[in-house]
């Protein structure tokens, strides 16, 4: 069975030594009293919860899955899941970064992001139950009426109730403009909602007394397409003004999907049969309101893969040091043993270091994004808020797609390190691969993320937001460009930053003439952008490590950071050259292929 050690030191390194999050966030009045010790202490406790409570349930959850009683429509989750959730609520974990007005602890998103990385590393399937609630909280917090907020936010904050996100229907996933679920206005101001949703994560379970479904549906007079979608809050049980539960609302789980991974999470088919709901936000503006939840969820999905990357790496590393096979090509290293541990073989190291670099780069990007999210929402200076908001918008599709593509590659490598044993259920390694695969699909497939990045976030504003992020890279290059020891990191980064401008302009021009060119280039483009961001953070991490070493710090932690950054720039970053080349090959080799695909 796999083990999991919360990567607290690595988190502290990114938060306090690289990003300086406490000073950055202290500029926000609500975080005026923030200090590093508090952040560290909360995460230490959070790490204990993840590694001691939810991690031991990961393999059981995978083997048992969820079961549906078709007569009662109730779902039973795997053994121990419900009790772990009760402990989560008891510990106040749901409230971590929620608004104190609704009972939250008011800590920065950074705390929640790190806590959730650990929960995901420990048990992704379990984590999706509270994870989706958090998205529902965000959407209601941003778009709910005062009455909705008063009634529902305290329950989501305490974790007493959970939330879901009901978008997908059998005939539409990516293209939500086609959705058919109907909402009929009632005389009392509520709506009766009828339709079928599928693939609803945590859509039914036995954790809580109530579930709040956030449902996209159409009003009778709604315009066609995505401009005619509204958002509704549909509770499983109706809620009286005093908060007590009333009648069962006809929103039923009619089936559970049998799927490749995340077996412990109930992926529900949900039938709404005149279920009572209330409007969230404005009529026909449901997608905008839901985007709050979707954006939170996209960052959350990137974080899921980050957690899996870390745990898969940790277990592969332990195995590679213990498993004896063959001798090193340059002669025996463990002479007292019948063979050398496989960690002596260069390619095993490559697989381990790939996973390690994906975890460390992903963590820096993820924590940075959480910090910018806090600034975008709460910073007193409007310009800082706007700039931060732009950066979060730019990075969100990259976090979602780059981290999940990397997570799948990393878990695959980690499984490969185990050889045939990795393919066997008990080692838990193949579960990581299966669990990681969905992260590339839901919350908008990674292709859709790449179209969002290139089309909406980059080309639609002529690269303005990209240039904003580029300014930070320029500042780093200006500061470190004179430092010879940083040349191995700064030179490739500066080269890519320069190439990126030309690359973007070129695709923009091609796309202007033929919009399909954008679709032909976007996936490669997003990966190049991902490396640009990773390169920036790896250079910053290397700079901190070099300074610590120069000051005489002998902690091997800093050597490790330096070696990982070197590996990253030498072995992973150069992928950008081939990606730019394939993106530049144009769309004809994809679209002029009717004969090949006949
Ligand atoms: C386990 C699981 C959990 C899920 N949880 C939820 C949930 O909680 N709530 C919810 O509402 N949904 C959920 N989903 C649904 C998920 O978000 C969708 O499956 C996903 O968005 C893709 O939609 P689709 O399956 O209909 O695929 P389609 O939209 O049919 O896409 C099929 C393929 O076509 C590609 N494609 C589509 N349009 C384009 C385009 N314009 N350009 C290029 N390629 C394109 C896609 O990238 C994909 O590869 C879940 C799904 C699964 C499997």
From TrEMBL:
Q: Which PANTHER family match?
A: ACYL-COA DEHYDROGENASE, BROAD-SPECIFICITY LINEAR ACYL-COA DEHYDROGENASE FADE5
* Domain annotation Acyl-CoA dehydrogenase/oxidase N-terminal: ranges: 82-160
Q: Which Pfam family, giving just one, matches this sequence? A: Acyl-CoA_dh_C
In Swiss-Prot or TrEMBL terms, this protein is called Acyl-CoA dehydrogenase C-terminal domain-containing protein
Which residue numbers delimit the Acetyl-CoA dehydrogenase-like C-terminal domain?
471-593
Q: Name the coenzymes or cofactors required.
A: FAD
The Acyl-CoA dehydrogenase/oxidase C-terminal domain extends over 284-451
The chain positions of domain Acyl-CoA oxidase/dehydrogenase middle read 165-273
The species is Ottowia flava
Q: Which UniProt keywords apply?
A: FAD, Flavoprotein, Oxidoreductase
Mind telling me which InterPro entries this protein's record contains?
Acyl-CoA_dh-like_C_dom, Acyl-CoA_Oxase/DH_mid-dom, Acyl-CoA_Oxase/DH_mid-dom_sf, AcylCo_DH-like_C, AcylCo_DH/oxidase_C, AcylCoA_DH/ox_N, AcylCoA_DH/ox_N_sf, AcylCoA_DH/oxidase_NM_dom_sf
